[in-house]
């Protein structure tokens, strides 16, 4: 069936068609653009899948657009502000983002499981990362891919791939992290982070002959 004929389907049938479609192509995640006529892959929330790629001419059902334009966008904005605090080395602001007790899982030869009961328990790790980035000359964190999954109106997870760069856009290293955001009152806070950043950061430092 041609893509343009799918627009006549009900939302439920449309969702089934898209679920079949996603099995045949890689899922891409880009910012949605509904103002132009250019067809772009968009993030789309459904029960079975968190993101899909739409074929030319297709648009998500209105219900899907409404769901994305609330919890998911709020969580993505929260992650961007969190990264901005790292960019500016604002340690106290970084610590403000954590909802304690917070849990970190870090890749290593023996995976590190770190339950952090309070602000002061989280401080040394944050300070080390900020220090090491200053040594390297890191000034930018660029999100090259992210997938946002809404688990409920109060919980969202973001899987982000991030490049660490200098002012000229030269890449030092990259990492992937899974950030669990929880709504706490009127704001979003980080309840857990699972990532592979530290071994890649340390390898980058050693490769440049810098002392830890």
Report on this structure.
The structure is a single chain. By secondary structure, the protein is an alpha+beta fold. It has two domains: 58 residues, no CATH class; 138 residues, Roll (Nuclear Transport Factor 2, Chain: A), CATH 3.10.450. The protein has five helices and six strands. A six-stranded mixed beta sheet has the order 2-1-6-5-4-3. The termini are far apart. The N terminus is likely disordered.
What is Rg?
Answer: 20 Å
Largest sheet entry: 6 strands, mixed
The counted number of beta strands is 6
Average pLDDT level? 77
* Overall tally of structural domains: 2
Proportion in β-strands: 25-35%
Biggest sheet: strand arrangement: 2-1-6-5-4-3
The CATH architecture of the largest domain would be: Roll
SSE order? HHHEEHEEEEH
Number of helices: 5
Low-confidence stretches: 1-61
Q: What labels describe this entry?
A:
212 residues, alpha+beta, Nuclear Transport Factor 2, Chain: A, six-stranded mixed beta sheet, 5 helices, 34% helix, disordered N terminus
Describe the SSE topology.
Blueprint: H1 11-22, H2 62-87, H3 91-96, E1 98-106, E2 112-116, H4 119-136, E3 140-152, E4 155-165, E5 171-184, E6 187-195, H5 197-207
Parallel strand pairs: 1-6
Antiparallel strand pairs: 1-2, 3-4, 4-5, 5-6
Helix pairs in contact: 4-5
